[in-house]
Queue: 2 jobs
Job 1
Amino acid sequence: MSSVSTLSLSLPVVWKCSRLLVLGGTGDAVKFVQQFVSRCPQVEVITSLAGRTAQPQNLQGKVRIGGFGGVPGLAEYLVATGIDFVVDLTHPCAGQIKQNAFLACQIACVPYLLFCRPAWEPDPTDRWIPVDCLEAVPSALPSTAQRVFLTTGRQNLAPFQNLPHLWFLIRSVDPPTIDIPNSEVILDRGPFTLEEELALLQEHRIDTIVTKNSGGDATYAKIVAARQLNLPVVIVQRPPLPPAPLVTTLEAALDQVVSFFRGDCSNSYTRKTDRAPGH
């Protein structure tokens, strides 16, 4: 913790008015930026992507790809770039970036708002097998599993490399970063309909599904399909969230960020007023 406090005292003060950093990588982030730009065109928007998707969706404003170098690197970036506000719309299961962003914003004295769509809740007829992390999935797979549908993301396949007795159907936006023996890869991006998911599961004779608790509607159809086909679902639960201001709808996120940049005096966020001349 001493390195963090030292950093907070040594950061240079270089501010630029009306600049928003969006931590993105999700469809929610794309929608947020589109609507925010239409409501606050005077604000410069920078969307930060981790680089996990080779072909990200089109985004308005500037796009930054790659990591920041942990909490110190992100804090330095916020100050050096003159970020006025950070809104976090990363994947609900991206726990580390959320914790890092919250701490970095505290160090840099930049307001931080966390958007996290509500998690899926099991229906009484669902056959969920909850686990805390991806590494716990192999041991949690039911003994009857033979043909497994994986929707955990192309960079989250390492735990499944040494399971030669299983066959995997892997769905991701981009090709996987590692090779999984005995598998087939489908490249596709949601949303998916219930009819599509039912057809996919039946065509490939899937008997088990592995997924993350992403929440939202875009990929929920596979949960309903599993319910209708009475399939077990090994579901990776979300990591803990930082103790930050939280909203669960895009409308609420937009309202809070827009009111901040419009100077709404009823907004609970404090806006920086000391600006370097010409910045």
Job 2
Amino acid sequence: MDFQGARHSYTAPLLCVTMTPGHYYNTCEQAANATIITFSCFDGAPRMETTQSTAAIILAAGGSSRMGAGRHKLLLPLGERPVIVHVVAAALASQARPVVVVLGRQAEEVQTAITTYSDISEIIFVANPDYAQGMSTSLRLALTTLQGLKEQAIDGAVILLGDQPLMTPQIIHRLLAERARTQMAIIASQYAGERGHPMLFAATLFPELQEISGDEGGRSVVARHKHEIAVVEQGNLQADYDVDTWEAYQEVVALWQQHHEQ
């Protein structure tokens, strides 16, 4: 059995060890059964360790329907790398772990783009065959994946959008820091007074998030828990820009070039 990415390898009787970071889950059932196990030895006997962390979920399964001309927005170039790679890089540079990337349209091409530029040992790829049914299907699949990880006790997840290539690890860090400081169930990003992405949800809200449907990423859950929200003013308004349309992509490219010419 492939056990790549694990820190140790051990074959224990009656123990089923399945997927690891860097692996590509094709179904929700596989994700639900996913197990990442680390063993340490005490008096010669294997022992499973559990660590607690806040995950990052990158929703990268959209159909790019608004982009037009058959373009896949996540594969468009920005600098020397595709759009999606910039978002993955921001997540990997943060303290959020593991990083779960949910793929949809042209899943293999998007995964290849990411693996070309990224260390995949800390990434879990999940393919969502139902991505056309809305963002909620990707979020549910990612949460199912996290709940199947036996090595780590996940205390929450930062939800990022794959089409926001100006995202930074500092933005993610501020959410994690505010969560540690306030212990609020939801930590929301705000840009110049307006709500934006990413957003952090405590694991206690995962069951509610798994009940949403359609093209929603947690809006109804936020509405129900409006007294359990801490807001972080992120300041950098450009980090919340997306590339949903060709015009929006051109604007982001111009901002990128302007920043790197300075």
